[in-house]
Amino acid sequence: MKKLYAVLFALFFGANLFAQLPKLQRVEPAFWWTGMKNPKLQLLVYGKDISANSVAINYDGVKLVEVHKVENPNYLFLDLELSSDVKPGKFPIVFSSNNKKQAEFVYELKQRVKNDQLHQGVNTKDFIYLIMPDRFANGDKTNDVVKGMNETALKRDSMFYRHGGDLQGIINHLDYLQELGVTTLWLNPVLENNQPKTSYHGYANTENYKIDPRFGTNELYKKLVDECHARGMKVIKDLVHNHFGTEHFTIKDLPMKNWIHQWPEYTKTTYREQVHFDPYVSKRDKDLMEKGWFDKHMADLDQTNVFVRNYLTQSHIWWIEYAGLDGFRLDTYAYNNLEFMADWAGKVTAEYPNFTFFGETWVHGVPNQAYFTEGNKINQGIDTKLQGVTDFQALWGINEALTGKFGWMDGLVRLYNVFANDYLYKDPTRNVVFLDNHDISRFYSVVGEDFSKYKSGIAWLLTTRGIPQFYYGTEILMKNYANPDGLVRDDFPGGWQGDKSNKFTATGRSNKENEAFNYVKKLANYRKNNDVLQTGKMMQFIPEEGIYVYFRYNDLKTVMVIMNSNAEEKILPTKRFAERILSSTAAKNVVTEEMINDIRTIKVPGTSTLVLELQ
User: Which member of 331, 400, 422, 513 is catalytic?
Assistant: First the structure.
């Protein structure tokens, strides 16, 4: 096993050479770039008793400011300062004891690549498609099992084991995603997760600078990003600030006691975000929420530790620069130290002003959710600089609108109320709206496999404010309930050689699946080609008699959306919407392209949503 890891390590670091491997096992980040706005760089050095050595660097433009020795003698942290005119190149970092060289690492400063296609940021013009890489498509069977890793089982008939999906499988199906109207990919974490069980989901990474070899390589990940950029698409990387997998080298051999939050016995978080803003909160409750572990195999990081902060932040900036990423999704956002998250956001934005990121805030209540965002109307005591969130309140709203009974505060009114509270955000359009994801029940099951309700949800998703996000397979009516969550992570049919059907093709889909696919495709591409649904303003009207109406509009175009939650057809008089209809007298159904020549009244089928472009 040690020999295999040594080979993999040498392959990954390329020209970064070690004089004595037993003394020096790794330096992270293994390389950096010239021309970065922040001149400071902190290197983590790991090796047996490495702190017994002195350190020397001799390279023009690189200053060794300080060498930090910590509790564990196997670590050193080196503070470097790079001058603004430092040249790209390689130089040795020499480790000596008693004036005798013990080890040497050849460090490289690379030239930054300047390209307008890189680090674009994700915005309301985009349509995000979320993929769980292990369950989407297997493009390279040779990496299904990697000897020497802690989990080598490959069982497609079990939700708990790896199935073999990988980055090459995603690259192979970019045409499919483009046809659907997707502009942006968000992949569940792809960093190495060498945990012995359920490693497929990626949320307990054991490396910070290395793609899981069962998904591919760093180079292949960069190729995926490059392929997307060549198609005018973008890529979001999923990050976990809150914890590392317990097989991470810094967890198995802690640099210092406060690298992680430690308890006398295993202590789980309370999962209660209210402690961040509760004016009557107890210190114990707040500590349990923020410092308790998310799970036994997820070691909770102490983000007040400056070395932890630097290690996380630099690894994230490294991936932006290395792969040319466009955005981040921040997992388990509410469990983090918010002062650290504000500092992290400031450093990322300072380096990449157009780069965007949104946090997962799985909470209940608009104020609870808005609390975590930047510049909000809530006295949070700290500006997190978080641009947007996963809008769970809108999700609960659309679910209630489609499955609940219409009432004073119920049914469609709940959805209306979610958006009525948008005043709490600095910019609610930066929130990511969605119908399902890898942690919750699939949307088609939520609406009871009612196809009309399914289409209503899709119509809402692609016309409402915010950035729409889709979950792989929703377009072909994949279904199931998250009990447990592995049930909503089925393989995409056709992603594996020998699958009985190939849903990536029209001939492999059933008539209803094709109808669903084409419905999503029609609306997604209309949205992609019409600014009004991307950056247009929104006006909504209080729902009445089970009907909710809102408009998206700009100076050139107006789109009217009518959601009828009644089982029966309704004739809708439009006089009350005159301030937005203005002089329009006709409308075109965006999906069917049929004309409605007189819109003084509009016939709305039962349990349906019309998307109308006013003429």
Answer: 331
